């Protein structure tokens, strides 16, 4: 049996709901071997981010070289990259090791409002990273910052998706979780030609810490197994939907999603 390998380049979340921890749990649940390079350590729980400690650029470059020189990932994702300097190193190594199945989650701000990307680094995401992306997964505020447009209507989303594809990302998944004006969550997948809408009932919950990380990790895991982008996004959507629905209810703030839920449902252990 072939075991496919997925690699996450992201920040550590001590609370275990987002970042590296969410990515590795998701990889494991979806049956791929997980590897990681840590760009920053965050002291974090369901109440917020108490501290951010970027990893040294030397340590980041070495982690990327360790993977690149030996463990050939089948798909790679990026999460919290924090600074322009870190983005440049990551982009350089992605090109050097020819990592093509690349998912960019342009993480900017944690749910509680703490910055996870320095403002001056936004331009490097556009210049250095998006052109390398097979898929990018901005949420609505991130898409607004990347495109410098205000996104209110579905046609605004389509226009913003077009701009992000023009920036070089082959596919864009614009996540709709932040639009709380309806009882649906609407994600949009754009491949440069077709707009595909994915709609789900909005689950009423405060436990959405790490949804974006988990969703992009699930896309990465499925790409690692050889799924095409549409298939990978559809499976990831089912994964994130189950993990929000079957709440763990941990902590007194924004709790983590339930990374066990999707597989437990597949095995019939949780009734839908
Ligand atoms: N309350 C919710 N109910 C159902 N799906 C949600 C909910 N919140 C987010 N999602 C889904 O979770 C994924 C991540 O969404 P989003 O919150 O927009 O991104 P981020 O976590 O990066 O801020 C998307 O697929 C989105 O549709
Ligand atoms: C280390 C780290 N990376 C990313 C996020 C974003 O989390 P979310 O997916 O909830 O936006 C986070 N809170 N912490």
Give a description of the structure.
It is globular, with a radius of gyration of 17 Å. The protein has helices spanning 19-29, 57-68, 84-96, 122-129, 140-147, 154-166, 211-224, 229-245, 261-266, and strands at 5-13, 33-45, 48-54, 75-78, 102-104, 135-136, 171-174, 184-190, 195-201. Helix 5 (140-147) packs across helix 6 (154-166). A nine-stranded mixed β-sheet has the order 3-2-1-4-5-6-7-8-9, with helices on both faces. It starts with a strand and ends in a 6-residue tail after the last helix. The mean pLDDT is 96. The chain has one domain: UDP-N-acetylmuramoyl-L-alanine:D-glutamate ligase, CATH 3.40.1190.20. With 272 residues, it is α/β, with parallel strands linked by helices. Bound molecules: adenosine-5'-diphosphate (ADP) and (4-amino-2-methylpyrimidin-5-yl)methyl dihydrogen phosphate. (4-amino-2-methylpyrimidin-5-yl)methyl dihydrogen phosphate binds at residues 10-11, 13, 18-19, 42, 44, 79-80, 107, 110-111, 116, 209-213.
């Amino acid at each position: 049996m072939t075991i496919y390998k997925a690699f996450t380049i992201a920040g550590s979340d001590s609370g275990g709901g987002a970042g590296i921890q969410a990515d590795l749990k998701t990889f494991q649940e979806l049956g791929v071997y997980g590897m990681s390079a840590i760009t920053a350590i965050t002291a974090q729980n369901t109440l917020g981010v108490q501290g951010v400690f970027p990893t040294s650029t030397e340590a980041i470059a070495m982690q990327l070289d360790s993977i690149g020189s030996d463990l050939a990932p089948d798909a790679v994702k990026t999460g919290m990259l924090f600074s322009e300097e870190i983005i440049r190193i990551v982009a350089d190594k992605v090109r050097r090791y020819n990592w093509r199945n690349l998912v960019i989650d342009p993480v900017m701000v944690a749910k509680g409002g703490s910055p996870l990307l320095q403002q001056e680094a936004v331009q490097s995401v556009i210049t250095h990273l998006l052109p390398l992306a097979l898929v990018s997964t901005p949420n609505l505020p991130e898409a607004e910052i990347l495109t410098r447009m205000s996104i209110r209507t579905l046609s605004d989303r389509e226009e913003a998706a077009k701009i992000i594809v023009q920036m070089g990302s082959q596919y864009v998944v614009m996540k709709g979780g932040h639009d709380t004006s309806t009882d649906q969550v609407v994600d949009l997948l754009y491949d440069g030609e077709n707009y595909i809408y994915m709609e789900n009932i909005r689950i009423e919950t405060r436990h959405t810490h790490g949804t974006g990380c988990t969703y992009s990790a699930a896309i990465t895991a499925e790409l690692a197994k050889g799924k095409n982008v549409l298939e990978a996004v559809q499976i990831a959507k089912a994964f994130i939907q189950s993990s929000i629905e079957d709440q763990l209810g941990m902590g007194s703030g924004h709790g983590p999603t339930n990374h066990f839920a999707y597989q437990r449902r597949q095995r019939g252990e949780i009734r839908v």
